[in-house]
Amino acid sequence: MTSTSGYAFRCTLTYGDIYGQILVWLLVIFLSLASGLALMGATHPVAGIAVIGLIFVLSLPFLMFAFVTTLFSHIALDEQS
Question: Using one digit for the tens of pLDDT, what is the confidence trace for 31-40?
Answer without folding.
Answer: 888 888 888 7
